[in-house]
Input
Amino acid sequence: MASDTDQDDFSFGEMFEEPAGYLPPPPPSKLVEYERPSTLDPPTIKISLLGTHPLWGHHLWNASKVFASYIDSNPHIVRNKSVLELGAAGALPSMIARAQGARRVVVTDYPDADLLQNIQTTIDLNFPLSPFISVAGHLWGHDIQTILELNDNEKYDVLVLCDLVFNHSEHAALLRSVCGLLEKNGRAFVVFTHHRPWLVEQDLKFLERARDEGLECERILEEYTGAMFDDDPGDERVRGTVHGFVLSYPS
Output
């Protein structure tokens, strides 16, 4: 799991570069299958995951799996709606949203070529050649116009944020994207686990910031899944529980 503080890039140039072939190659990408209830079509969603990535995009997070199940149990929240996922990584909720009839799905993550190509691979595995689902890079808090153009210059009915609030230094930027991209009658689903139990209050400050921006906040789910990382410190029950909230503007 990520450390409490950001790592500085001291940019020492070539001084500490390893010679070619010194380091082992990164682990290869892998394919994960997410099984849905057998009555649903398709019953299996294929997710491509990078072998490793510094932005933690190589995991299929418990929050994403729990929210995917939530969508399947409540398909009306996405059906015939425009859906935008932020910080998507494996992009499972986006795949489920499209399978449940979202009219347009835009999957975003940090504008890193490996991350975005991996998401495109997942799209191609599940919805080849579909014009209704696409991937784009998005740096939180910046250039929302490019993301709006992918939805005919309209804001989105549904935003999906799975396991993003642990990145405390980016709360303000993430919330700028939410406020700039969420339609006035839309809903933003914020689903997460407290991976570092001693930082619960800092995680929850994202919701406080959202309230300060005039958004209402309602709890929609709480589910114990077990911890993502067995060897991490802190209360396992806290690290293994997924929480879900929905943000919306007052009606």
User: Anything to note?
Assistant: Residues 124 and 130 are 8 Å apart (CA to CA).
